[in-house]
Amino acid sequence: MNLPPVAARKPTRRIHHNDVFVDNYEWMRDKDTPEVTAHLTAENDYTDARTSHLELLQEQIFEEIKDRTQETDLSVPVRRGQWWHYTRSVEGQEYGIHCRAPISGSDDWTPPVIEPATGTNAGASAPGLPGEQVLLDDNAEAAGHDFYSLGSFDVSDDGTTLLYAVDVEGDERYTVRVRTIATGENRGDEIPNTSAGALFDPSGRYVFYTTVDDAWRPDTVWRHEVGTPVEADVTVFTEPDERFWVGVGRSRSNRYLMIEAGSSVTSETFLLDAADPTGDFTVVWPRRDNVEYDVEHAVIDGEDRLLIVHNHNAVNFELVSVPAGDPQDEGRVVLPHSERIRLESVDAFRDFVVVEYRSDGLTRVAYATKRGGGLTEINFDEELFSVGTGGNPEWNQPTIRLGYTSFVTPSTVYDYVVATGELRLLKQQPVLGHYDPTLFEQRREWALAADGTRVPISIVYRKDLVEPGTPAPTLLYGYGSYEISIDPSFSISRLSLLDRGMIFAVAHVRGGGELGRLWYENGKTHQKRNSFTDFVACAEHLIDCGYTSPDKLVAEGRSAGGLLMGAVANMAPSLFAGILAGVPFVDPLTSILDPSLPLTVIEWDEWGDPLHDAEVYAYMKSYSPLENVHQTHYPRILAVTSLNDTRVLYVEPAKWVARLREVGADALLKTEMSAGHGGVSGRYAGWRERAFDYAWLIDAAGAHPSGEGEFASLSNADGGAA
Prior knowledge:
Blueprint: E1 12-16, E2 19-23, H1 34-50, H2 55-68, E3 73-74, E4 78-80, E5 83-89, E6 97-102, E7 133-137, H3 138-142, E8 149-155, E9 161-167, E10 174-180, E11 185-194, E12 199-200, E13 206-212, E14 218-225, E15 234-238, E16 245-250, E17 256-262, E18 267-273, E19 282-283, E20 293-300, E21 303-310, E22 318-323, E23 332-335, E24 341-348, E25 352-359, E26 362-369, E27 376-377, E28 386-389, E29 399-405, E30 412-417, E31 422-428, E32 440-448, E33 454-462, E34 474-478, H4 495-498, E35 503-507, H5 517-521, H6 529-544, E36 553-558, H7 560-571, E37 578-582, H8 588-592, H9 600-607, H10 614-623, E38 636-642, H11 651-662, E39 667-672, H12 683-701
Parallel strand pairs: 34-35, 34-36, 36-37, 37-38, 38-39
Antiparallel strand pairs: 1-2, 3-5, 4-5, 5-6, 6-7, 8-9, 9-10, 10-11, 12-13, 13-14, 14-15, 16-17, 17-18, 18-19, 20-21, 21-22, 22-23, 24-25, 25-26, 26-27, 28-29, 29-30, 30-31, 32-33, 33-35
Helix pairs in contact: 2-12, 6-7
């Protein structure tokens, strides 16, 4: 068997609060040195050699994903102004094609039937209308690049001009370009090094965009006049507080341009009348520490109002309405605070208002018409599901576009007709190969944490392949940070696990947002260890209830979920057969101590400030995966990272794997050399990346490599995993 690369030990002393930590692998931080490149290449070669026995299984899973996916397909068209906008995908092409087709009239709210391969409108209600226009072909833009990501996409309100921005490195720095749609030719406007989210003002004369500071924090909003030199662009807003990001947008009503500045716990919004795009933005509510709020413009009884979702003296947030001309007026409470319901957002339209919230750990959507009568919830009947609004840009639309999914229900798009209560099915994600949802069981379990807290676990498996009470190979997934919830959702690629008799489970640990704001608060800063102990409790529950056993249980987490994986590997290694950590935040203390690193100061609200607070330093050191590696029998570990990731630098998993090897752990490192935080770009490349991950997890869990599903046509006798 090939021997693993041995990283050179070059001791570096890190001294804070009278504590000395000797880091033997900090030298790996300089990715431009030949030594680092050679080491990462050697690690990739070693990982390839160690996983070569899985190549057939990887190829089988890739083909399963591909064969189940309708490769030539179309998103449900969304009306914007006088056009239906949609994205087509074509078999054999990595990226989407962004298109539009004209509406048939002002009352046309029924999405047209578009032929995905050709873009022809099969159900045109008005013959003679101009056909599809291709606005941007991502495949053409990506040609010649190993990586491609679209970060901004906007069409001027008059429909004549396209704005788009691309990243071809993976570092989330985008170049904005402006294109005349009629000719398909780019103008001279080219703005490099922007953040995502650039957009036109309603006149189409100006582009608003953001740039970053030296720590790669979006901190400045600019105004660019189309057709003028970039050097003449005007600074509109700069945020000096290093804890805050900034972004720019527009209200659905087109009445206001909006700048939002926010940290993890505090926010501030500024408005500008869109009719005066060169004017000055004014603050809605001056920022107050630990107060977050979002603003939506509404017209109620002919009066301009601002609907504000906020958490001032309302931990789960409440909704208030204030005069747009005097937003600091006391206003009136529309939806009061509830200990049971976490209010998340509000969307205002001409004739109704939509709210999204969480209840009993699940997402919900409700609406109220301006005729009164209170909220009406849009109900669904599955035990586990996820629902939310999306694709609702038009102020005067009569419908609410909804996205719905569950572990067993493919992604589904509905239009809800407010006037009648009709729920119109527009499209359900195709799953080729006779997918039968009745074969699958999804359910909710509750683990008991050490402090008595009940922690939800969502589970899905094939009923004909899993016998409750008989331990089965199981993948337990977790995240648990930033109030991000891992809601039930369908995955074509996951079927390759379920068809091999594996259980898929999500541990909804504290630090996420599934059970309200306090669920998040009790899993961050000085209570961060709750995320890790909750995950351990979920693993123990699945074992104790007979779902699985330690030799069949594997775990996965990405980014901050990778921190969760590293901490759990140290805390409870005997519970797992394997742990996959994607772009993992496994050296958090080194990163959060260095304000010069990308996004560090912003993170202090989430983790605490170990640079200036000795107690925070000691607490973070107590769980930092890198610093708590110890002599024990670790499960098999796979760390996957990206060289150009700016959110979690590749050096963290590289150092972690080297340290694990010191204590004899079977640890692999795979570095994508042309990718960012989200991994490789392109759908086929993404499928291959997922096939690699799943093959490793199947092998680590001891699941049968061929499985029992319709696509299990290859046998282990030809070289699959043992």
